[in-house]
Design a protein that fits this description.
Blueprint: H1 3-15, H2 21-29, H3 33-47, E1 51-54, E2 59-64, H4 65-68, H5 80-94, E3 98-104, H6 111-131, E4 139-143, H7 156-162, E5 164-170
Parallel strand pairs: 3-4
Antiparallel strand pairs: 1-2, 2-5, 3-5
């Protein structure tokens, strides 16, 4: 095979979003296909104040930490259970083999404390998913403290955006991926 054709094939492969085998099977067996399922999933999760982001290699879910945890703690709000039950059902339904949970804080307070809280928040969410029947070996969890802001910490709105949980749902086994 010539080099130009190999390059073209490589570029084409990069354009195809990765998906779990269950999603690919669903696409073959339903009229709505992936686009319809994604739209339905996004609608349900966003109605629960969960932002859904389709990345090239994973599905990202962003939850405001204020709606999930009592401020400054790793104790989940009672109302957060519904969102986690839906997310857990999604992971089981589509059989995502790898789940990464990331917790973040704003820059208020002590940096060491913020790091500890986000570590505990990520671990709490990992435990909730494991308790719902998801194999803990498929889940990675990590707190990032105040190190990765997405907004300006000078405003209340910005701090609210920085206090968040992110779930990254990967349609492939990440065990071979070298940590950065």
């Amino acid at each position: 095979m010539n080099t130009a054709l190999k390059s073209l094939m490589f570029l084409f492969v990069l354009q195809i979003p990765l998906m779990p085998a269950a999603l690919a099977e669903e696409e073959r067996n339903t009229d709505g296909g992936i686009a319809g399922q994604y739209a339905d999933l996004k609608k349900v999760l966003e109605s629960r104040n969960i932002q859904v982001i389709d990345h090239s290699d994973h599905l990202g879910l962003v939850l405001p930490a204020d709606k999930t945890f009592k401020l400054g703690t790793s104790r989940a709000h009672a109302g957060a259970a519904d969102s986690w039950n839906e997310i857990s059902a999604l992971i089981r339904q589509y059989d995502f083999p790898a789940i990464e949970i990331r917790a973040y804080s704003d820059d208020r307070g002590n940096a060491k404390y913020n790091q500890q809280i986000t570590d505990k928040q990520a671990e709490t969410m990992s435990g909730l998913l494991a308790n719902s029947g998801i194999d803990r070996n498929r889940i990675e969890s990590k707190g990032y403290g105040e190190d990765v802001p997405v907004a300006d910490n000078a405003t209340a709105d910005g701090r609210g955006l920085n206090r968040r949980l992110e779930l990254r749902l990967y349609p492939y086994d990440r065990s071979y991926v070298v940590a950065k």
